[in-house]
Structure formats: structure tokens, C-alpha cells
Amino acid sequence: MDMPAEQDPEIEAEEILKQIFASNLRAYRRERGISQLALANELGLSPAYYGSIERGQRNLQFSTVGRIADSIGVHPFDLLTGHEPPPEDDDE
């Protein structure tokens, strides 16, 4: 009987990060009342491509991560950790 091959730790870590990113992105987007279609349009992405991002099926460039974060008003780091950014200082 064949034993299942061990998964490459780098691939496993990549998949975990993609799922964390996807889950956080979905949560932040919903929290802000933005539809997938509206965000996809704002980002200039097809709805199908955007949906695959939220399903954790895409490897994204840092520039795309930054554009997504800007569009939903979070720091890119928050999409990997789930932490809200600190409140902005009021300019009085």
C-alpha cells in the first residue's frame, strides 16, 4: 500500500497564507458592505477572477494586494493577520 507523499512545507505555508488572506478579505469586504462585483469593478478585475481571490485560488502580486487593501481601507498586513489598522489621527 502506497503512503501519501509528504506535502512540501513551502507549498503548505503558501496555501495557508492564501486562505487567511481570502478569509480576511471576504470579512473586511462584507463588514464594509461592498459586493464582490463592486470591488472587482473598482479594481479593474473580472468578477470571476476576484471570486477566485476570495476562494484562495490565486497567487497575488504585492501591488495587487496593496490595491485591494487600499480599496477596502485596510493596511495590507491586516489582510494576512486580521488586525484592524490603528485609528487615524484627527488633524485639528
Label this structure with key terms.
mainly alpha, 92 residues, 5 helices, 59% helix, globular
Molecular structure report:
The protein is mainly alpha-helical and 92 residues long. It is 59% helix and 0% strand. The protein contains 5 helices and no strands. Helix 2 (36-43) packs across helix 3 (47-54). The longest helix has 23 residues, at 9-31. The chain is globular. The protein starts with 8 loop residues before the first helix and ends in an 11-residue tail after the last helix. The mean pLDDT is 86.
Map the helices and strands.
Layout: H1 9-31, H2 36-43, H3 47-54, H4 62-72, H5 78-81
Describe the structure in brief.
This protein has 92 residues and is mostly helical. It has 5 helices and no strands.
Low-confidence stretches: none
The H-and-E topology, N to C, reads as HHHHH
Helix content: 55-70%
The fraction of residues in strands falls at under 5%
